[in-house]
Amino acid sequence: MTMYPIYEDALQLRNVTNTRFPFYTGLHVHGSYPIHHHELIEFGLVLHGEGTTVINGSTYSIRPGSMLIVLPHHIHSFVSDGEQRLEQLCCMFDMQILADALLEPELSAALLRVGDDLEPVLSLDEETFRNVRSLYGDIQQEFNSTEPGRNSLIRAKLVELVLQFIRQHPQMRDQTPISQKGKKKDAWKLVQYVNTHYMEESVTLELLSSMFLCSVPYISRSFKDLVGQSFLSYLHALRIRRASSLLAATQMNVSDIAAEVGFESFRTFSRVFKELKGVTPSEFRQAATAASAAEATTEPSAATIDVH
């Protein structure tokens, strides 16, 4: 039986009707949770329980004090250890909320690397854990409030969460900040749009040019400045990353995966995949299956799935 990742309409599932500020926060308590994806960015902070999470095909241990960021449409699942349940504070929201916060270019670029070359799970020290938990408490209080400026304060606290994650991340500590020379405030919106619509075949430089009323050369320069890659290289990297996750985590037909991630041509998909991964899609799946079998020592016990 072919296994497909579950698509969740996360806001509808949680009865969020405010389309002008698509945001949700709450405490998630669950056992093992199957592979799924959604259109929202997800911030999580584990309070109780231990287990693993698989994000884009890579496995990470999680325990109290683990903070995780899952970008839109990144495939992920959770497995709890034994019969214990995982408890985590969670914020889920449209990335446009952060885009509207006018993040500094280096912060935006770092956020877009999460789940790719920047690991999405971070173990916090005690002081940072207390600070982050306090931020979640502030966000929850504002979420339940009707006071003026509620959305602005939630947005500001989300930026603080991003900063806590980036500043504490060991892969970021020794890096030189990216120069802001020549950066445009709206360049982030271009990258954010591609990051959430990359699976659509229609995403092209010409489409972005018409949507955002800027020239193709400007868009090309913006991608180079902000993410260090050309538009097409960045688009291909997003699509191949998702294809890799599908190959490793599902039994979907390879040609179906090519179409799922936005390639019009299977030949182009195969060529780009081998250029980026060094192997064919079928070889990648075989290697992933063999690695998974070698790592599996015991079958995870079944657990009741509540809400995630």
Primary descriptors:
2 domains; 45% helix; Jelly Rolls; alpha+beta; Arc Repressor Mutant, subunit A
Q: Main sheet, how many strands, which sense, barrel?
A: 5 strands, mixed
CATH architecture of the largest domain: Sandwich
Per DSSP, the total helix count is 12
CATH C-level class of the largest domain:
Mainly Beta
- Coarse shape: globular
Q: How does this model look, in words?
A:
The protein has 308 residues and is of the alpha+beta class. It has two domains: 6-168, Jelly Rolls; 187-293, Arc Repressor Mutant, subunit A. 45% of the residues lie in helices and 18% in strands. It has twelve helices and ten strands. It has helices spanning 10-13, 96-99, 105-113, 126-143, 150-168, 187-197, 205-212, 216-227, 231-249, 254-260, 266-277, 281-295, and strands at residues 6-8, 23-30, 33-38, 41-48, 51-55, 58-62, 66-70, 76-80, 86-93, 121-123. The strands form two sheets. The protein has a five-stranded mixed β-sheet, with no helix packed on it. Strands 2-9-4-7-10 form a five-stranded antiparallel β-sheet, covered by helices on one side. Strand 5 and strand 6 (58-62) form a beta hairpin. It is globular and about 50 Å long. The two termini are 24 Å apart. The model is unreliable at 176-184 and 297-308 (pLDDT under 50).
